[in-house]
C-alpha cells in the first residue's frame, strides 16, 4: 500500500505554517516535515513532528543553497524515510518557501522505486489573503521579500506564486480575504481545484484521500496547454486568450516585449520565432516581471503562439492590437525571406540560434 504525501507550497511563511498546522491536526495519524533554506548560511533545516511534538531537528550543509539541491539531497529522501517507517498514515511535507511542488511530483510519479510505495495525494498552496493580489500581480522580487531560494534567485514573487496556484489541487487563503483576491485565485487555479477561505476549513482527509491528478495538473500548468480557459464569472477579474498559428517577428518582439509583458497582470503561454522554428518557446510573467525560455521541440505538434493574460480591475484595451502587431504578417510569411540568421537578439534568454533551431 502506497503512503499518501501532501505537499504544501507558497511564498508566505506564515500562510504555509498555518496551513501545515491545520493539516497536521486534521490528520492525527500524519507526520509533518518542514524544510527551510538559509541562503546565507548555506544550510537546510529539517524539522519532523507529529501530534506528540517535535521528533527530529537537523541542519544539513548544502554544497549550493538552492531548491534543486535541497529537494535532491534531503526533501525527497526524508519523505521516503518517513513513509517507510510505517508509524504514520500520511506524510505532510512543507516544502521550502518558494519551492514549486512540480519537481517533487515528477520524481514521486516517475521514479519507479519511489512510486511503488509513495503517491502524491494532494498539492496545497497557501496564500496570504491580505496581500494575495499584490503577491500574484505585483512587481516585488523574491529577494526583496527575503524569501529567495538562492543567491541567484531573481524571480518575481508573482511569477512564483501564480505558478504555484496553477499547479495546486487546493489553494488555502489565510487571514483577511477580499472578493477580488478570491476571484483571481479561482481564475488562475486549475478547473476542479478547490479554493478554501481559511485553513480551518481545510479538509485534511479529503486532501490525503487523493485529489491530485498528475496528468491534469501537468496539462493545465504547461505553457503549451491546448484546452480552453474558462471565462471569469465575476466582474473583478479579466482574462484574454490570445492565439495564432503565426510566429512572433523577432525584431518587433524584441522591441515590443513590454507591450504585453509589462503591467499588473499574469501572462503565460508559448510562442515561436522563424529563426528557431522547431523549438517551443516559453513565456512566463507577472506584475511586469517576464521570463522567456527555450522549451521542448514542437515535434509533431503544430507550432502555435498563445498567451493567456489575467488581471484585476479594468482590462487594458491595447492587448489584442499589441499581440497582432508582434506577429509575422501574412505578407512577411509569403515573402520567402530567409530566417537563417546567425543571431536574432534573443541569445541571452534562448541561447545561440545555431544550437536551438
From TrEMBL:
Domain of life: Bacteria
Domain CobW C-terminal: residue ranges: 237-327
Listed SMART domains: CobW_C
A Pfam family assignment: cobW
Gene3D superfamilies xref list: P-loop containing nucleotide triphosphate hydrolases
InterPro entries from the UniProt entry: CobW-like_C (IPR011629), CobW/HypB/UreG_nucleotide-bd (IPR003495), P-loop_NTPase (IPR027417), Zn_Chap_cDPG_Synth (IPR051927)
Protein known as: GTP-binding protein
